[in-house]
Amino acid sequence: MKGARTAPDRQDPIALLRVRVAWQSDLAWAFRHSPLAVVSFVVVALLVSGAVFAPLIAPHDPFDPATLNLMNGFTAPGTPNAFTGESFLLGTDDQGRDVLSTILYGMRISLLVGFSAVLLAMAIGVTLGLISGYRGGWTETVIMRVADVQLTFPAILVAMLIFGIAKGFTPVEYRDQIAIWVLILAIGLSDWVQFARVVRGATLVEAKKEYVQAAQLIGRSGAAVMIRHILPNVLSPVLVIATISLALAIIAEATLSFLGVGAPPTQPSLGTLIRIGQGFLFSGEWWILFFPACTLLALALSVNLLGDWLRDALNPKLR
Amino acid sequence: MSAILDIADLTVEFPTRREILVAVDRASLTVSPGEIHGLVGESGAGKSTIGAAIMALLERPGRITGGTIRLRNEIISGLDRVAMRRLRGCEISMIFQDPLTSLNPLFTIREQLTETIKAHLGVTDAEARERSLDLLARVGIPEPGTRLDQYPHQFSGGMRQRVVIALALCSEPGVIIADEPTTALDVSIQAQILDLIRELANERQVGVILITHDMGVIADTTDRVTVMHRGKVVETGATRLVLGKPSHPYTKSLIAAVPRPDAKLHRFPLVSHDGRATEFRIDDLARNWNRTRAEAGKPLFEIRGLAKRFLQRRSFIPSRRKYLVAVDSVSFDILQGEVFGIVGESGSGKSTVARMIAGLSRADGGTILYDGKPVTGSGSIAWYRRQIQMVFQDPYSSLNPLMRVDAIVAEPALHHGLLSGKALRRRVDELLEHVGLGAAAGLKYPHEFSGGQRQRISIARALATQPKFLICDEPTSALDVSIQAQILNILMDLRERLNLTMLFISHDLPVVRQMCDRVAVMRNGRMVEIQDAEALFAAPREEYTRSLLSLMPRLDWLAREGIEGQIEG
Q1: In DSSP terms, which residues pair with B179 in a beta bridge?
Q2: Which residues of chain B are within 8 Å of residue A2 when distances are taken between CB atoms?
Q3: Which one of A185, B204, B298, B348 is most buried, by most CB atoms within 10 A?
Q4: What are B99-138's pLDDT values in tens digits?
C-alpha cells in the first residue's frame, strides 16, 4: 500500500445533498426567518413568471390586430361591454386591448431591458473595478476619475444622452426595431459606476491577502489572479448591488418610456403603458393608467426590498 | 488578604442557531489587590469571554447562565445596565489589545483623559488637568506637559499603550482587565509595558487580570495563573508552581510545547491532548521525492547589496519625491540544505527581503543569484518560480476561501505544467495523506478546517511542485503553541529528510533558535549581525543583538517533563 488511496468520486457527490446543504446554509435560514423577504420573493416570482409565460396565460394577444375589436374600447374593469357584451378583468384601453394582457406583455419588455441593462452595467463595472483595484497607479486614477465625472450627471440624463446619440446614428426604418437594445445600452452605460466603485474597494482588500500572494508566487498572470482568485471573492456585494440596480433600471426604463424616448408604442413597456394611460386619467378611464402603475410599483418595490434584505443578510456587521 | 474580585462557577453560554456553545464552563478564580493574575489558554479556551463577562460586555447573544462575580464582596453579575455603567471604567477598567484603535483619533490625549477623570471623580478642570499630568508622568511619557495636547497619531504604538494604561488608571480602579495588552507590540516595547503594569499593580494595589496566550508573558509577569482549556479551568495556583510543577496533563502538554530559549530540541514532544495531534508521514513523502544532492557549504543563494524603497510622497518632479528605505544594501548567502533565519522587530525589513527573494516585489538595487543565475532584473524567472515555494503567516487568509482544497493544492503543479489529470490528482491525494489530513480533505473548503490544519494545507500546496527552496514568513505566529510545535516539527522533518533549503522569517527568538542553522539579525533595513544560531544565542557580537536576547522570557525554571529526551547539545 503506497499511501495513495483513490479519493471518492469528485465530480458531483449527490445533487440532493447539495440542495440540503443550500437549504441549511445561513443565507437560506435568514431568508426563511424574514417574512418581508419571503413576501417580496413571492411577488417577484409571480410577476416574473407572469411575464415569461405571458403568451400562455394572457387572455388576449394585444399585438394581433385580428383579435382586437374597436367596439371593446374603454371597457371598465369587471363590467361587460355595452356593445359586445365581452367582459375584461382589468378593462380595456382606447383600442379595445385587454389591459391585463398589455401589462403581462409590457412586463416582458420592462424585465428584458432591466435584466440586460444590469448585466451590461455589471460586466463593465466589475471589469473596470477589478482592473483599477488590482493594477492601481495610473490605470486606477483614470478609471475612477471617469467614474467620478459620470456621477456628477444624473443617471437618467446620461441615459437620455446616449439614447439620443444612438438614435441619431440609426436609419429611420430600423429605429423601432433596435430601440429596445439602445435602451439597454443607455441604461447599462449610465449605471456601471457603482459596480466599479464597490468592486475596486473589495479588490483592494482581497489583493492584500496571502492567497493572492500565493498565486503571484507561482507566477500566475494578472488576469488569472483577478479572474480565478479575486473575482469570486468580491461577488457578494456585487449581487446586492445588482438586485437594487435591477429595480432602478426598471424604473429608469419606465421613466424614459414615459418621457417618450424609450420603448416604442409597437412594443410597449410598463412605462409606455403609463404614458398612454395618463391621457385618459381625467376623462374617467382611470384603469388604463392605474393597473400598469400598480404593477410597476409592486415589481420595483419587491425587487428593492429583496435587495435590501440581501444586503443585510450578507453583511455580518449588521447581524 | 481578602480577594478583591471573586469569580465562582461562572458559566457563559452562546446560544446559536444550531446549538448552545458553552464558552465558559463553571470557572472559578480570585484576584487579590496588587496581584497580577494570568489567564492563559489556547484560542477558544474562553479566557477573553471571562474578561468580557466581568465587564458585562458580552457580545450578543452571549449570556451568563450560572455562577457569580463578586467585586469587594458585592455581587456584580446580573446588574442592570445603569448600575454596570457606574462600575465599568470606574471600579473596573480595561486595557485592550490594539493601542492603535483604542484611542479616539479625533481628540487630544488631554481631552480623553480629563473627560474620563471628570466623569468618574467629579473634579474641576484644573484638578483633572493636574491629575492627567501626573498620570502621564507616572506611565513614563517624557515631557507630559507638551504631550498632553497632542493627538494619538503623534504617539508611537508603545507610547499609545502607555496612554491607554493611564486612561485605565484615571478613575482609581480596583481591578484592571488587560486583554492581550502586548500582543500587538514589539518585544522590546512589550517588556517595558509589562514592567509598567507590574509596578503600577504593586504601587496602587490594583488587582490585574492579564489575559494572554503567551507562556513567556505569563512566566515573566504574573503572580498567579489560571490555565483554561475549552471553557474549563484545568489548573490554578501560584505561577511558579503551576508552570514549574504542573499537575494536569493539559498543562504539562502545553508547557512541553513552549519553545525554550535555553535549549535546542531535536523535535517537540507530540502534544496529544484530546487528539489535536495529527501525524505527518514524512517517510512516505521522502520515498517519492526528486532529491538533488545538496553540496553542504556551497551557497544556493548569493545576495548582494539588496535594496528596496517605498514611495512616501508622490510628485511629478523626481527630486521632490520622498522615499522610505525599507531594505538598505543587504548582503548574505544561503547555503544549500540549511535553514537560514532572519529575525527583527516590526519594520526591520525582514519580510520585505523575503518578498524580494520570493519574486513578489521587485528589488530597487542589488542582485540575487540562485544557483549562480540571476533572478533579479529583466528576463523570465519561470524556471526559478518552479524551484521555490512559500508558507505564509496567516492560515486564514493564505487559502482562497472559495476554492476547494484539492484545487488549492493542485494549482502550483498545474500552473507549472508539471503534472496533469490522474497523476496530478494522485499527487494531491498523497500530499493530503502525508500532511495528516487524508485524501478526503480535498473535497472540502478551507473554512471547514482549523488554523493548524489550514497551515498543513498550505504546506501541502508548497510541496506539490517538489521545490528545492522554501520560504517561511512567520509560519507559526498566528497559531496556538501546541499547533506551533506540530508545524515546526513538520518543517524540521522536511528539512532533514528532503534536503530542503529554507528561509525562516520570525520575530520570535526561541522559535528561531529551535529552527535555524544560521541567523541574521535585521534592524531598520540593515543587517546587524549574521552568525551560526548556537554562537549567536551563546555569545552575540553586537549590542543590539544582546539587548534583543535579554528580552527573551527566562523559561529555565519551566517544567521539563516530556522534553528531556529531545534536548540537543
Answers
A1: B211
A2: 284
A3: B348
A4: 778 888 899 999 998 888 888 888 888 888 888 998 898 8
- Nearest-angstrom CA–CA distance, A74 and B519: 92
Domain B1-91+174-244, CATH homologous superfamily name and number:
P-loop containing nucleotide triphosphate hydrolases (3.40.50.300)
Cβ atoms of residues B325 and B364 within 8 Å: no
Other CB atoms within a 10 A radius of the CB of residue B549 amount to 16
Q: Which of A7, A229, A232 sits opposite B439 (nearest CB)?
A: A7
Longest alpha-carbon distance in chain A: 90
Interface predicted TM-score (ipTM): 0.82
Q: With an 8 Å Cβ cutoff, is A265 touching chain B?
A: no
The model's confidence at residue B546, banded by pLDDT at 50, 70 and 90, is very high
Three-class HEC string of B314-327: CCCCHHHCEEEEEE
Is B492 in contact with B515 (CB distance < 8 Å)? yes
Containing B166, the helix (H) or strand (E) segment is: helix B157-169
Q: Mean pLDDT across chain B, nearest whole number?
A: 88
**Amino acid A302: pLDDT:** 93
Beta-strand ranges (E) seen in B410-532 are 469-473, 501-506, 518-523, 526-532
Q: Which of A1-15, A69-83, A199-213 has the highest mean pLDDT?
A: A199-213
Q: What is the reported pLDDT for A2?
A: 38
Mean of pLDDT over chain A? 84
DSSP sequence for A62-74: TT-GGG--GGGTT
In chain B, domain spans: 1-91+174-244, 101-170, 282-568
Which amino acid is it at B137?
Answer: A
**Which of B358, B472, B366, B465 is CA-nearest to residue B414?**
B465
Q: How near does any CA of chain A get to the CA of B505, in Å? A: 16
DSSP string, A83-113: TT--B-TT-B-TT--BHHHHHHHHHHHHHHH
Three-state DSSP at B522 gives strand
Q: What is the mean predicted confidence (pLDDT) over B304-312?
A: 89
- What would be the CATH architecture of the domain defined by B282-568? 3-Layer(aba) Sandwich (3.40)
- Report CA-CA distances (Å) from B64 to A135, B94, B439, B483: 49, 19, 42, 30
The architecture that CATH gives domain A16-62+90-318 is Orthogonal Bundle (1.10)
Q: At what angle do helices A231-258 and A155-169 cross, to 10 degrees?
A: 70
> Which one of A3, A215, A232 has the shortest CB-CB distance to B284?
A3
**Closest by CA position to B300, among listed B372, B243, B351:** B372
Q: Which residue of B has its CA nearest to A225?
A: B400
Q: Do A209 and B412 touch (CB under 8 A)?
A: no
Percent of chain B predicted with pLDDT > 70:
97
Q: What is the structure's pLDDT at B317?
A: 80
Q: Tell me, yes or no, if A29 comes closer than 8 A to chain B by beta carbon.
A: yes
Can you give the residue ranges of every domain in chain A? 16-62+90-318
Distance CA B298, CA B301 (A): 9
For A3, nearest residue in chain B (alpha carbons): B430
| Greatest alpha-carbon span in chain B | 79
Residues from chain B contacting residue A216 (CB–CB below 8 Å): 360
Please give the average per-residue pLDDT across B157-169, as a whole number.
88
- Rounded Cα distance between A125 and A122, Å, is 5
Say whether pLDDT at A276 is over 80: yes
CA distance readout (Å), B528 to A213, B223, B368, B545, B553: 28, 36, 20, 8, 22
Among chain A residues, CA nearest to B285: A3
Which residue has 447573544 as its cell numbers?
B61
Mutation test of the interface with chain B: which of A18, A21, A210, choosing the one with the most B Cβ atoms within 10 A? Answer: A210
Stretch 231-250 of chain A: residues touching chain B, C-beta under 8 Å? 232-233
Task: Enter the pTM of the model.
Answer: 0.83
